[in-house]
Specification:
Elements: H1 2-14, H2 16-24, E1 33-53, E2 56-57, E3 61-79, E4 82-100, E5 112-135, E6 138-151, E7 157-161, E8 166-172, E9 175-187, E10 190-199, E11 204-210, E12 217-218, E13 223-239
Antiparallel strand pairs: 1-2, 1-3, 1-13, 3-4, 4-5, 5-6, 5-7, 6-9, 8-11, 9-10, 10-13, 11-12
Length: about 240
C-alpha cells in the first residue's frame, strides 16, 4: 500500500508540467461536478479519556503520534463559490499511548506500559466547502463536515507491552464518527489539502486477556480504556 501511495504522488508531480501548459491556454468553463484522486500522510494521536489498570485510574497518559498514510477518490459538486465534496478513503492510522503503571504509588520506581496501534479503515467524509479565493488558475477554500469510518478488523494490529497480562486483545467499535475542518489550495487542477480531524466516539469497545495465574481468558476490570483519535493530515491530489 505504501508503494502505491508513493507512486500516486509521483504521478501527481509529473502532472505539474501538463497543468502549467493548460493554464497558458486560458480559462475554461467550470464543470458542475469534478472527480479527483489524492494521496497523503496523517499524524494520529489517541487521546485517552479513561484508562484503568487493576482498578486504578491512570491520569498521566502520554499520547505519542506516529505517521500513517491514505489514498482517496472524491467528487466535488459546485454551486458557484460553495461546493459539496463526498469522498471514499482508505486510511492507515498509527499511534501509541504510554503510561507509568506505578504513578499512583509513592516512593516506587516507574514501570511503563504502552499500546501501539495500526488501524486500517474505509471512510466516507461528506464535506461542505466555500472558496473564498476563486480566480483561475488559483483557488483557496475552507471546508468542514462529518466522516463515517469502518474499521477493517482483519488488517488492524495492536501490541500491548507491560500491562501484566498475556494474550491481550482489544475489540474496536466497527463504526466510528469524526468531524473534519480543513483548508485546500489549488493551482489549476493540482491541489494541496490540509485538515484536522476530531474523533467524536470512543473507538475501544472491550478488552479481553488471559490471567497469568491460571490462563483463563477474562473480560473484566483488569484493563479498561476509553480513547478517541485526533488526526492532522496533508494530501496532494489532482482534480479532473
Amino acid at each position: 500500500m505504501m508503494k502505491k501511495l508513493l507512486l500516486l504522488i509521483a504521478l501527481l508531480l509529473l502532472a505539474l508540467p501538463i497543468t502549467a501548459q493548460e493554464t497558458k491556454k486560458g480559462p475554461k468553463e467550470e464543470p458542475k461536478i469534478n472527480v479527483g484522486i489524492k494521496g497523503g500522510f496523517n499524524s494520529s494521536m489517541y487521546f485517552t479519556s479513561r484508562l484503568e489498570l487493576d482498578g486504578e485510574r491512570m491520569e498521566d497518559v502520554q499520547n505519542n503520534y506516529k505517521v500513517g498514510y491514505f489514498t482517496a477518490l472524491f467528487f466535488r459538486i459546485h454551486m458557484k463559490r460553495h461546493f459539496i465534496q463526498p469522498e471514499i478513503m482508505y486510511n492507515v492510522y498509527k499511534g501509541e499511548i504510554a503510561f507509568n503503571k506505578n504513578q499512583n504509588k509513592e516512593n516506587t520506581l516507574p514501570e511503563f506500559a504502552k499500546l501501539n496501534s495500526t488501524i486500517h479503515s474505509l471512510e466516507l467524509p461528506i464535506l461542505y466547502g466555500y472558496s473564498f479565493v476563486k480566480s483561475r488558475p488559483y483557488g483557496m477554500a475552507l471546508f468542514i463536515g462529518p466522516k463515517l469510518e469502518y474499521v477493517w478488523k482483519h488488517k488492524t494490529f495492536e501490541e500491548f507491552e507491560g500491562f501484566g497480562y498475556s494474550d491481550i486483545k482489544e475489540e474496536l467499535h466497527p463504526i466510528n464518527i469524526s468531524s473534519i475542518i480543513g483548508l485546500g489550495v489549488n493551482i489549476a487542477n493540482i491541489f494541496f489539502d490540509f485538515r484536522y480531524e476530531i474523533g467524536l466516539t470512543n473507538i475501544s469497545r472491550s478488552i479481553t486477556y488471559k490471567e497469568n495465574t491460571d490462563g483463563i481468558r477474562s473480560r473484566g476490570k483488569g484493563i479498561s480504556i476509553n480513547r478517541h483519535r485526533n488526526v492532522l493530515s496533508f494530501s496532494l491530489g489532482v482534480i479532473f
